[in-house]
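Please go through the protein record below and explain what the C-alpha cells say about the fold. Record follows.
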Amino acid sequence: MNNRSIKLGQYLAALIIAALPLYYVKLTILHIPTNVIEILVLLLFIVTILSASKDRLLKIPYSFQIGLIILGIALGCIVSVDHQAAFGILKGWFVVPIVFFWCVNALFGVEDIDIIGWAALVSLLSVSIYALLQWVGLIGATSSQGSSVVQYVSQHRAAAFYESPNFLAMYLAPLIVFSYGLLQTKAIKIWWCLLVLALPVIMLLATQSRAGVLALLAGLLVLIFTQALRGGAINKKTSIMVLTISVVLVSIILFYRGFDSDGHLFIWQTAINIGARHPIFGIGPGQFQHYFLTYNDGTSYFANLSGYAIHPHNIFLNYWLSGGLLAIVGFIWLLISVCRDMAKSTSRVTIAAWAAIISVLVHGLFDSTYFKNDLAIIFWLLVAIIYLTKNEMRTNPLGDPH
C-alpha cells in the first residue's frame, strides 16, 4: 500500500466533503450529464483502486443492505414513466454516494478520521457564510434556484444556493450535530466550540424550517444522552445550556408557523395511496409529482400543493415509492445494522456520527432528507465513519480518535 497515494485519496475525499455544493456546477461529458462532485468521486475511485490494499478493496460493508437498495431502485427505474430522470437519480443519489462510501472505507483508518471532521466543518462554515451573505442581500439568487426562491427571500428565509430553505436546513442540521460532537474534546474550550457553530445555528434558524430545528434538537439530545450512558466526561453546564436553548428555539419555530401549513398530511396520505397501488416495485425515483397530479380534485388547495409535492416529504415513504419493498427493507436493515455497530463503540466520533444520522432521520419524517446529491453523500459518510470506528475506543471513552 503506497502511503503517498493513500494520503492523496484521503485529501481528495476531504476535498469532496468540503466542496459538496459544487454538484450544482453541471457538465456534459460524452452526452452524459454530470457535475463536478461526480467527476471528483470518479477520480477518488481511480485513486482508491490504485492505492488501497486488496483486502480493503474487496471489503464492502453492509453489502447485502446496499444490494437490496440498489436493486430496488434499479427496478423502480425500469417501471418509472421517466426513465432518463429515474436513472439519473440512481446514478447521482445512490451509485455515486455509495462509491464514495466504499472509497472512504478503503482509504481511511480510525487514526485518519480527523481529516474527515475538519473537512465537514469547513463545508459547514462555508455554506453558512454564503447563506448569511445571501440572507442579508449581498448575494442574489443563482440561475439554478429558479423563480421560487424570490418568494423565500421576501419571507426573509435563508436559502443560500438551494432551491428551498428546507434543503439548506437539511444540509446544516446533521453537520452541526456532527461537528459539535467532534469538537467536544479537552483540548478545545467549550465556548470556542459554541462560537464556531453559532453562525451555522443562526442560519438554520433563518431557514425557518421547523423540521430542521427539531432535527437539530433530536441530534443534540441523542449526542448528550448517549455520551452520558457511555460514561463520558460531559460538561454539565454546557449540556443544560444546549438543551435549554434548543427547547426554546423549537417552541418559537413551532408557534411561529402553523403545523400543516405546507399540506404535509395531505401529501403523506396521497403518497400512501400511491404506494398501495404500487407496493412491490414502487413508482421509481423522482416520479412522485407525476403520480400526485393524478389525484387532482380541481380545488385551489390541491393546485397550491402541486408545485410543492415534488416528493412525499418523508424519507421512508420516498424509499418505498422510489424502489419498492426491496429498497425500503434494505434501508431499514441498513439503519438497524449501523445502530448495532454504533453500540459496539464508545468513541466520541461514532456517537457524533450516529447523532447526526438521527438528525437526518428526524428531519426525514417531514422531508426527503436523503434524496439530493450532497445529502446522500453526507448520509453515507456518516455510515462509513460509524463502520470505521465501531470497534474503537472501548477502553478510552470519548477520547481523541488516536
Q: What stands out?
A: The longest strand covers residues 26-29. Residues 394-402 have pLDDT under 50 and may be disordered. Strands lie at 26-29, 32-35.
